[in-house]
Each structure stands twice: as structure tokens, then as C-alpha cells.
Amino acid sequence: MIRFLIRRFLLGLFVMWFATIVVFSLSRAAGDPRYLFVSEYSTQEQWDEWGVRFGLDRPYPIQYLIWLSRAVRFNFGESIYFNDEPKEIIGERWLATAQLALGAYLFAMIIGVPLGVWSAIARGSALDLIARSVALVGQAMPGFWLGIMLILLFSVQLNLLPTSGIGGWKHYVLPAITLGWFPAAGILRLIRSSMLDTLDSEYVKFARAKGVSSRKIIWKHAFRNSAIVPMTYAGVLLAFFITGAVVTETVFFWPGLGRLSVQAVFNTDFPMLGALVLLFTATFLVVNLAIDMLYRVIDPRIRIN
Amino acid sequence: MTANANARRAAVAGARSEGLVTKTLYVLRRWPLLPIFILLLVTVAATFAPLLARHDPLLGKLFNERIPPVWHAEGSTEFLLGTDPLGRDILSRIIFGAQVSLKLAGAVLAVGTVVGTLVGLIAGWYGGLADEILMRLAELNFAVPFVLVALASAVVFGSSFGLMVILLSIYSWAAFARQIRAETLRLKSADYVALARVAGASVPRMLYRHILPGVVNTVVVLMTLNIGQLILAEAGLSFLGVGIPGPTPAWGSMVADGRDYISENYWIALLPGLAIFFVVYAMNFVGDWLRDRWDPRLRQL
Predict the structure, then answer these.
(1) Phi (first) and psi of residue B271, to 5 degrees
(2) Is-contact B277 B129, C-beta < 8 A?
(3) Which of A29, A190, A281 has the CB atom closest to B145's CB atom?
(4) Do A243 and B258 touch (CB under 8 A)?
(5) Which of B260, B249, B263 is nearest to B91 (CA)?
(6) Which residues, at least 6 apart from A27, have a Cβ–Cβ distance to it below 8 Å?
């Protein structure tokens, strides 16, 4: 366990280091940041002074080290667009994204788990066909288009739900469905294939031979084993939520981190963008590690490897 | 073995089927006819786009803005699927958009498949440090948020077809590398590979003659499963405004064009999105079908 943790920690550091290289290279490839402050009244002296102040007169590797030493102390410089520290703005916005992701996750589980179980039990039936169609449709719909179509149906035509922004529970419905549809399809497929495997296993056959009721077999023996399967999917899911949040929040004008990222990109606000990329990467690494450790606790078979 | 099982299942189903409906349903279940039809349609549209499109996909006409599709009372047969906010024919743009999507997916797949397969073969064959380094590189793709890096690169370097190919190739190779590595590991210990080694075959020869043919099925299945993902990723970036630069018709940016008109002119956003949906659906369906026939071990994907 200790060796596993050390190894993962070192790998995580390597990934974070790579992310800083990407962020720094992109920010420097975008051009000299001094151009953002320069005006017609600026003088050559001011230009040089800024160069010294921001360390821009040094060679790139030195600049990178200066930038990195600040970044590890969560100092990314001032956001060019918001005139504030990125961590302050992120602090205000992260909750909206977390709520959206949670809503999407709940939707995905509510749709994916029961449909997956039912379609495995009633393999080849009409219900199975419907469930598999739901999965295929869910994985083929572009999220942004689904969002717009939901707005068209529920906001414009039926006038039931708000089109955008954040507020009461009604505001969460459409964005959560938009973001949750794709994972719902994924969970459905995973649960279905895992349930089929378990229902075909020796111990379930033995339970059947013993005369255990089929309801008990499905829920106590098979489902309990399949229920941990979506956990392996959690890492993929998180990566998807980060990408999906960018698109979903753009469609619904959701005041979260996804839309903040898009704004940062289009305002060439590299202090903000750098902070966001590193935050997302770190979140991904930490959550994945937590999942892997939890998985080792739940499923002893993995500990052997 | 799979063929046998299929045949047996076919016999059982054949005995059960009574009416024509059941038979048709059976054929439909066995062969993905509808998805194949969709894919053929799109390929034909993309190949013969200049012949099929009745209007210029780039130039709109003044006073032709936002004409509804033909099934509306105000629609005209000249613009079967209506026009967009700049007066361009949506059908023509969807046809040319198919060309853009398929070209991009083809270019990216070519790069992603070759690089991913090579990396997978090398990592699987040599193991050790090479394996460790290459597979950690493949994991980077997942950890660092691709969409933000893609957005930032597009803003920094300016969006273009070439940049999209590069970005999406970086995004796609890792899936190939992981699977091919696993397959290579499995095949490496096969007796015929050991015999080739004893016979003195060189490493490139063993990889090319003995391992590669064993992983070709996996590669093809992964390719079909990946095309849909690529089209979705391209559409997403185009929707955000950093994909294929306008006025080139890309399905994703066409949906974005219609977003502000959704309350009155729904068709502008609906129709290009349907095009994306049908193509990705067909591609995924064929991919699943091929996987079940050729490579059932990948079923977890």
C-alpha cells in the first residue's frame, strides 16, 4: 500500500509538471504579456520596467522557474479580465459547477442503473432493446445540441423551465440532463454487461441450484457485485464532466468554472486559464487516487496485483 | 467459435420465426442495415458534394435569411431544409459539412491509428522502462483537460484545419496505444512467436509478421468506435467557436449559428445537430457490431 501510494504520488507530480509546461508554453506562445498593458502613453522605460518586474527580460527557462515558484504557492498573478486573483474568482464559481456535476451524476445513476439491471435480467426482450437504444442514442448526441433542443422543447415550446442562468431547482433540470445523458448511457452499458457476466457466473448458478429466489439472486448476489462497476468508470466520468461542463455551461450561461474557462480563453486571460487547467488536473489526480484506494478496500482481488 | 454460436443462434431464431415481420426483424438485428445506409449516404454526400449541393455553401443571398424548411407553409422547394441567418442553404451546408467532418476524421484517424498502434506494439513488446514511459504519456491525455488545451491552442495559434488534425490526433492515439499494448502482451507469449524467435527472426519482423496480424481486428474495431468520438469532439470545439474556422460549413458551428434563433427559427440549430447525431449513431452501432463479431474481448469498452 505504501509503495503504491508513493508511486502514485510521484506519477501525479509528473503529470502536474507536464501540465505546468503546457500552460506556460501556451501563455508565452500567445505573445509578450506586456502588450496587454501598453497604451499610447507608455514609454520605453515603462516597458523595460515591466520587463524587470514580471521577469520578462530573462530567458524562458528562468521565466518558467519564476512562474512555477509562484504557481506552487497558488499565485498565478492577477486575472487580466477580472482584475482579481484567479483563486478568488474560482472560489466564487466552483460551487455552481460542483452542483451541476452532482445533478448530472444523480441523473446518470437514476437512468443508468435501473435500466442497466432490467435490460440484463430481461435480455433480448423489448425492454432490453429500449434500454440499449437509450444507451446508443445517449452516446451519439452532441451535448451542446441536446441542451439547445431541451431549451427548445421545455423552455420555448412548453414554457416549463428557465432557459439559462442559475436560481431555484428548476434551473438545474435542463443543464443536469444535458451533462448527465452521456454518462447515463455509459453506466447503463457497464451495469448491463457486468450483470450479464455475474448472472452467468458459477456462484449465481450455485445459488439458483440451491433454490434461492430469483429476486434474491438478482439483488443480493448479482447486483451487489455489479454495483461497484460504475466506480471504475468514475475516472472517465470526471474527465468527461470537466469537458462537458465547458460545453453545458456555455449553452446555459451557467456561472461556473466551465464558462469561466471559455471566457478566460477568449480574453487571453492566461493567469486565469493556467489556474483552471492546474486545478482541473489536480482534481482529476486526487479523485482518481481516492477511487483507486477505495476500490482496493472494497475489492480485495485488486490488492494482490 | 463465435461463428458457430452465431449459426446455432440463427438456427434457433429461424425455427422460432414464423412471419415475415419476424424475419425482417431478424435480418435487421443481424446486419446493421440502417446504420450502413446512413454511412453510405454520408459518404456519397461528402464525395459528390459539389454535384449534389444546389447552392453555394459559403455565400448567402440577401433577403433569403431564415427561410423555413419545405414542410412549413412559408418554406420553398428551392431551400429544402431552409436557410440560416446569413441566407445560406442549410442542406448544401450540411452536405459540404459532411465532407469537412469525414476529411478531418480520416486525417486524425490515420495519424492516431499509426502512432497509437506503433506505441502499443513497442510498449507491449519491450515492456520495462519503455512501457512505463509510453503508457504514462498516454495517461497524460486523460489527466490534463484536453478541451482547455485545445481552446487555448486555437486562440494562440489561430484555428485551422491543420491545428484541429494535430489536436485531435493527440487526443485519439492513447486509446489505441492502451488496447494494442494489452493485445501485444497477450500475443507475445504465444508459442508461434516463441518459435519465430528461436528461428532467429528480427524484432521488427516478429512485430510485423507475427504480432500485427493478431491485433488488426482490434485496430479496426477501435477505429470505428473512435470515429464517432472524433466527430463529436470536433463538433464540440466548432460549437465553442475554435474548431474549423468559418465560413467553412462545420456541423458544430452550424448548430452554434442557430442557437440565438432557437425561439423563432428552430431548424437552424436542429438540422445540423441531427446530421451529427445520425452519423455518430451509425458509426457507434457499426463499431459495436464489429466488436461483437471480431473482438468480443473488448466488450467492456
Answers:
(1) -70, -45
(2) no
(3) A281
(4) no
(5) B249
(6) A33, A270, A273, A274
A145, A149, A292, best to mutate vs chain B, most B CBs in 10 Å:
A145
Closest CA to A193 of A119, A292, A134, A298: A119
- Give the dihedral sign, CA A239/B172/B95/B89: positive
CA pair distance A146, B149, nearest whole angstrom: 24
- Taking the C-alpha atoms of residue A279 and residue A71, their distance in angstroms, rounded to an integer, is 11
Q: How many CB atoms lie within 10 A of CB B231?
A: 25
A43 DSSP assignment? -
Residue A269 near residue A281 (C-beta atoms within 8 A): no
Q: Which of B142, B152, B241 sits opposite A239 (nearest CB)?
A: B142
For chain A, domain boundaries: 2-72, 86-298
Residue A255, CB half-sphere, CA atoms under 13 Å: how many? 9
Contact between A236 and A244 under an 8 Å Cβ cutoff? The reply is: no
- Residue B61 reports pLDDT greater than 90: no
Reduced to 3 states (helix: H, G, I; strand: E, B; else coil), residue A223 is helix
| Share of residues in chain B with pLDDT > 70 (%) | 91
Amino acid identity at B134: L
Residues B252, B233: Cα–Cα separation, whole Å: 9
* A271 to chain B, closest Cα gap in Å: 12
B144–A277 CB contact, under 8 Å: yes
Burial of residue B162 (number of CB atoms within 10 Å: 0-12, 13-18, 19+): exposed
Q: Is the separation of the CB atoms in A209 and B114 below 8 Å? A: no
Annotation: CATH topology of A86-298: MetI-like fold (1.10.3720)
Segment B108-162, tens digit of pLDDT: 999 999 999 999 999 988 888 888 888 888 888 778 888 888 888 888 888 888 8
Predicted TM-score (pTM) of this structure: 0.83
d(CA A127, CA A120): 10
Which grid cell is A143? 451535448
Phi-psi category of residue A187: left, alpha or beta, with phi > 0 → left and psi -120 to 50 → alpha: alpha
> What pLDDT score does A26 carry?
86
